[in-house]
Structures are given as C-alpha cells and as structure tokens.
Amino acid sequence: RKLTINPAAFYYDWNKIEVQAVYFPPGGGAGVVVLQNAGAAEGKGFELEWSYVAAPGLKVFGNLATLDLHYTSIGTATGITLHSPLERAPDLTYSIGASYTHEIGSIGDVTASLNYSYEGEQNSTPTDSDTLILPGYHLLNGRLEWTLPSQRYSIALFATNLTDEHYYVGGVNYYSNVGAAHYDLGRPREFGVTVQAKF
Fold it and tell me: Average pLDDT, stretch 62-75?
C-alpha cells in the first residue's frame, strides 16, 4: 500500500466552439471584441498521477498530461484555419515533488515539501493574426509547514518560483495594427506566510 497510480485516457468531440476575435472596422476606429462560431474540434490525451511512500514520513509524487487538440471544422469563423492551434492548449505538462513529515513530540508535525513543474509551449490567443507563441517554462516551489497536534491549526512558510524564472502566461500580438506586442509576465520569485485554522 505504498504506491498509488491513477491513469486516465480521454477523447472528446467538441462542438459549437465560440472564439473571441478583435474586429477593426473598415476605415479605422477602435477594435472591438466579437464572438465567432469556430465550428468543432477533436481532442485526445493521457493523464497519469502517482505517489509513492518511499520511507516513513517521506512521499514522492508527480503527474503527467499529454494533449492533442485540433479543429475539425471552423464554421463561419475568420482568422483561423483547420491548422490553427487552439488557445492555451500545451501538448505536455508534468510535475514531480516530494514531502517529508517529521513528528516533534508534543508540539506537532513539521512538513517540508518541494515541487517542480513544467508547462509546454502554447498559443496566447485563438486567432492566427494576433497570437503569440508562449514558450514552455519550469517552476520550482517550496513549503515548510508546522501543524499543531490537534491538526486544527497550522502555519507555513512558502516560496514560489524559487529560480526566479522569466516566463509568460498570456499576451496579444498587435504588430499588424500598432507595431507592437503585449506579453503578460508570470509571477516572479515570491515568499510568504499562511496561517490556517479548521473549525
């Protein structure tokens, strides 16, 4: 009872997809966001979650997901083709981590954990003319938590993006209109404290 594995394979047929696009009126003027019917898409993939108790108090865990998603019809939509990638649909994501819990007599438990994750390359918008390719990125997070013996109260120190990775989580390509692109930056390295009470 040390190893847990949860695999899943999936397939879906997605119909009546609505896609946002920016429409610029003829003769100039501000762009407006419109909804288009993009027809249908087909997707399939595989997911795997696992955990393993390597020693008393020590657990390692991870997950893996693959995705193959593509249009089968574009309906009346403009700005995309059957070969256009769908928005925010990375082919691969995975993570791996470990946690260790140590009992400290009558004052409770201390748990230290570390998690490393990867999210693959993806497109920032659904339409070809304004999309940006967001490179894949890795994140490393850590946490140290003290839980009182009653299990009702805990306090934790955490750190996210420990390597201060520079990455993007969104954006729009405006080159055809204003000659520039807008990128949404991911969160930098951060530290914090959380306090939790269960009632």
Answer: 96
